[in-house]
Design a protein that fits this description.
By secondary structure, this protein is α+β, with helices and mostly antiparallel strands. About 35% of the residues lie in helices and about 20% in strands. It has 15 helices and 17 strands. The strands form four sheets. Strands 2-17-14-1-13-11-12 form a seven-stranded mixed sheet, with helices on both faces. Strands 4, 5, 6, 7 and 10 form a five-stranded antiparallel sheet that branches. Helix 12 packs antiparallel against helix 13. The model has no long low-confidence stretch (mean pLDDT about 95).
Amino acid sequence: MSKILYIIADGMGDLPIEQLNRKTPLAYAYKPNIDHLLSNAACAFPSVLGRLAPQSDAGVLADLGYDPTKYSTGRGWFECLGLGMAPEDGDLSVRVNFGEVENGTLKSVRTYMSKEELRQLEDEINEKVKLPVDFDFKAGEGYRAGLVLRKGGTKFSQYVSNNEPGYEPKFYRGGKKLSFASKITSKKISKISAIKNEAKNTAGLLNSFIEKAVDVVRKSECYSRRKAAGSQLPNYVFLRDAAVGDPKLPPINSRYGHGWTAVAGMPLEKGIAKAAGMSLVETSELEDVNEDLKNKADKLAVAMSRSDAVYLHIKQTDSASHLGKYADKYAIIEAIDRIIFSRAIRLVNIGRGDTIVFTCDHATSCEQMRHINSNIPVLIVNRRFGRISDFSERACSRSPLRGIKKAIDIMPFVTGL
């Protein structure tokens, strides 16, 4: 069977930037290995979720062929599953950010910390925070964590708001749930509220956790050390995307006729891969971009040797965008070309009928430092296609494949080649 390599670079899409000669980071980046593949390539420029700016959960689900409005019960489920917290139906799974607040006003929703600092805060919160229900708290990557309230005899509800500004929950038929990125219009910190009466107890428990966890964090050694060093402070916790149900994704192997393996270091993407029934090559995120990409290239080689379809996730393009670092973003795309694609060219045989897909889950604007409602660039390399001149947002918008109107169309199109 021919092989598929499906690469998703988080938040890679962008808008033209004045300092890059009105080009996007993708268009500006030097990409000789990708350019080498353009002799057998086609491109697409699909929307992800219409007029709404998606989070990564919606974007990755759509890229992998799952309509997020039909399957997502809330990002928290995937996040906690990827952290190894094993949420069950009826548990409440929540995504958590460590951030910084000053005088009740948002300063930052992201306080980046070392793995050691995150583990220290994880231990203290699990030990010192007391709630009337059992819970597990687990640190993730950078500034992220997961929270699972165990059901016991308590019935939880996903119909609660987020206390993280810039992410608004939206509900679909059957209680399906997504949050969407929006411009932060107020930096006032609000409590979590019940959207339906059934969620009043759940909202109360989450607000209690926030209050007690914040108290623990502000009294921690990690906080004291960072304050003495003049570093950004982790003095608040933001919760979003609470989920109570297993999304029950149809197995991707039977759905699309290949045996899939995932190479992903971020908890969310690991969780989606697990929920879809993919095998996982164990890996984690490394702080140095080049070292991380080299590690993922090695893991990619392992995955390609044992599977006929591999999904590879790369995080750093999105991280640079949220920090407004457009020069870092195009440099990361160049590193992806230099490290990942130089290896991919040797692992994938286009002449034999193999396929490479390179795309993103959503666009993240460096200038706005947030996810935006924009179509995403998609490159598909296969011997059935002729030459295209470039891979960029503009090139994809000018001559897109007709069969890919939405991101959920990518996977059925590719597996049907």
